[in-house]
Amino acid sequence: MYDFNYHRPGSVDEAVGLINEDAKILAGGQSLLPTMKLRLAQPSDVIDLGAIPGLSDISVDGSSVTIGATATHASVAASGAVAGAIPALADLASGIGDTQVRNVGTMGGSVANADPAADYPAAVVGLGATVHTNSRSIAADDFFTGIFETALEENEILTKVSFPVPEAAAYVKFANPASRYAIVGVFVAKTADGVRVAVTGAGGSVFRASAMEAALNANFSASALDGIAVASDDLNSDLHASAEYRAHLVAVMAKRAVQAAGG
Amino acid sequence: MSSETGIGASVRRKEDKRFLTGKGRYLDDINRPGQAYGVFLRSPHAFAKIKSIDIAEASKAPGVVAIYTGSDLADDGVGGLICGWGITSKDGEPHKAPAHPAIAVDTVRHVGDQVAFVIADSVAQAKDAAELIEVDYDELTPVVSGADALASGAAQVHDDVPGNLCYDWELGDEAAVDAAFSSAAHVTKLDIYNNRLVPNAMEPRAAIGDFDAGTDEIILYTTSQNPHVARLVLSAFVGIAPEHKLRVIAPDVGGGFGSKIFIYAEETVCAWAARKINRAVKWTAERSESFLTDAHGRDHHTTAELAMDANGKFLGLRVNTIANMGAYLSTFATSVPSYLYATLLAGQYTTPAIYANVKAVFTNTAPVDAYRGAGRPEATYVIERIVERAARDLGMSPVELRKRNFIAPDAYPYETPVIMTYDSGNYPLNMDTALKLIDYDGYAARKADSESRGKKRGIGFSSFIEACGIAPSAAVGSLGAGVGLWESAQVRFNPTGSVTVFTGSHSHGQGHETTFAQLITEHLGVPIENVEISHGDTGKVPFGMGTYGSRSLAVGGSAIMRAVDKIVEKGKKVAAHLMEASVEDIEHAHGVFKVAGTDKQVTMAEVAFAAYVPHNYPPDLEPGMDETAFYDPTNFTFPAGTHIAEVEIDPDTGVVEVLDWAASDDFGNVINPMIVEGQIHGGVAQGIGQALLENAVYDTETGQLLSGSYMDYTMPRADDFPSLKIETTNTPCPGNPLGVKGCGEAGAIAAPAALMNAITDALGVEIDMPATREKVWHAAQSVQQAAE
Q1: Which of A150, B32, B218, B669 has the most CB atoms within 10 Å of its CB?
Q2: pTM score over 0.95
Q3: Fold (topology level) of A168-260
Q4: ipTM
Q5: Cβ-count burial of B495 within 10 angstroms (0-12 exposed, 13-18 middle, 19+ buried)?
């Protein structure tokens, strides 16, 4: 690890004021710290959000679940309120990494980092959530823009995400056996505005499977997905899964998610 | 069994209290006064010429003590690393042994090869300085696959090894095998790859070189399975220091699986550098370095052919293997795919004619050497895969085919056509025991149930054998070993009756501190809490050959028994004197000396006290109660057994679930059943890991290790296993005083074939390890498409 300046601001405004071109925001650090330890990242400043009051709050009202940026995966997984409103969200959080990762890793860190194989982006897009920052609100469909890329500007800090409560939802992950990241993860939600199907792990960024959504809007059942394939052209191919295998898994996981969501 | 802590008792491991409470003393827990820290600059390229190395800027960096390159070692007369087992090719030529400098001189040959050693006051400073070293490389095209290395036009890893061929070796009667094939009713042929593995010991390798300028002694702390062998090699061959001026200490070591047998560059350089800087220097591998530089395991490409008569009786076996040695020869690399492999190709069967040809080749990858089982897993994998395949070809039950060919329980000693003489065993009993454990009779119903749920169920067998208790010195010497493979033990009574045993075996997870203590408790009646087992320090233990090849109990334990015999013999003389009887009338059992036919007795503790306070003592007897023995085995031991795996496959995803596992193993007599069970668990876990999950993958273009971290290299985890059903059968080994055979490697030897046979049984097609989910899915799809 290279030397850096460590900051622990007491408010979001203070944190924003500390940002510079070579600074990094630290939430749970489950992606940032390993890259720093391997000397692959060399931030001048590390701005730790851990001391900001209220930033880890979880709140549930009749129509949405709002999770603060520094809420850990373990706290989301253990929240009875979250499990009561959107069980699929608590379930997703309970399956991230391992116990140690879940005790430290945060929702905001996962969403802002936009790892192509992370779980949370599937829930953000699958539920049509709203991403809140210190300066604005961003719709889920506009938030993830590419591999490790989001709509966040340099002077912007993700503060919370509001997830609308769906009629039914489920997340099914086909985990990488080594890292336990998603090789393919599919989040299916039946919402007031129709069915949403979000796929993580398979491509460069989370994406919606529109053909599947159309079929499920007509008939919310696994059999409605028969014969609907995701094109493998733009999917990831690596040591663990070819694009062809990933495309197949998207279809299988989508069906299982629909079944888990009661379809 | 004499007590709750003697032979046969599942005594809880004495060493676990310190391990489980964080009080173990592993290498990185040790710090020496004034210690500096070393970091290796490593090659980012698989194959490149070093045009220049500029350390000028780096040398000026804060905290830097010294920076050394390969030329510094050479200038100081430090020799290269050696391979200690000579193999003779079939044309009579010795194996090719290219130079293996501890730090590369003009060429790097694998990613991670040492380029420079930077010593500084802290690890961070050493790393900072290492980044300032400028190395000008001229990159070359690498070769990484053993199968590719022999192709014309392949990269030449060493200029002095034409065609990358280290040796072309053979064993067995080729003409007899040819004759067997010409008369065969059936021939089954199989091409298989035994995948390359990274050992992944929990504690990474580490070393501290320390130097005492007053005594001119170098003290090397290192993560070694055999500290005396390390001292011998570093003294006699590398020239670090004379043997009596080099002390090697291997403290608590967190796992080895073979990978810590070898004498590595890093510990060599630390020992040498400590004298250069007159200061202790510590190096601890980071996990990334472990992946790149620990000696890997396996990596065999094999074609096997089995000839049978019309009744399925095996007539002949022909095996051709290409073994990937990596970029350099590790310490015992040459022996693994030759004498530790082809000599076991008879398996448990009466196959009368066997011929093996092994071509060992160099590639631009990490060196390959012994890994849990070392050659014997590769042999079992070849035999048990082809036997299972033969059963399918013949339409015969794999159980029946094996039983028709098993060596009979009354046929021992049994001489195989590949130079081994099996001493004992009962192979049909192990098969029948395992069949009961797995409820073979109920399998058809279970398979039907799986199919009703759209799943594919399979069952697979592996009737393995291994040669352990390594090994008779004269025998291995005649086969090329550079060392003898006896073991030593010193049993020292203290005046108060407690005992310290010094053993040349080395425990790095095996539980020797408990098992060996049980021997003393059983035979000398010393309470187990009063027995201390000391190992891992050349300054304390007389000598030793270390722990590998499931040898510690069979050879190291036998040495302890020899020392115990001497203690008893001397004890009888003391007891006779104390009880005013004749030595011939003294009987000994479990630490009590009696005058035969009387009620007179003295205890071992009283005898030991008298030996140290010899006021009333036989006039012609030396005082003290401290005996040393060396034991050289007369044969290998031959643990064997049958493992059965049952799996269910989801054809939609390729996910394999290991549903059930049965193991019936013959380890001879068992000292501590709980520890034996733990060894089976660990071995099976590693075997399942190899078959299903683990794979060291190099990029064929760049030679980069693609699975170089736990993000990509899949270690097996608890939820990958069913609860194992284990029984042991116990045919005592006739070759050693304990009647033991060894249990450390059995699981890793048996498991891969059992699991792959179950998977291929479910799929109906052959696939190679590891049976990744994608590979299994593709296979399931291909079978389905063929059926449609």
Answers
A1: B218
A2: yes
A3: Enolase-like; domain 1 (3.30.390)
A4: 0.96
A5: middle
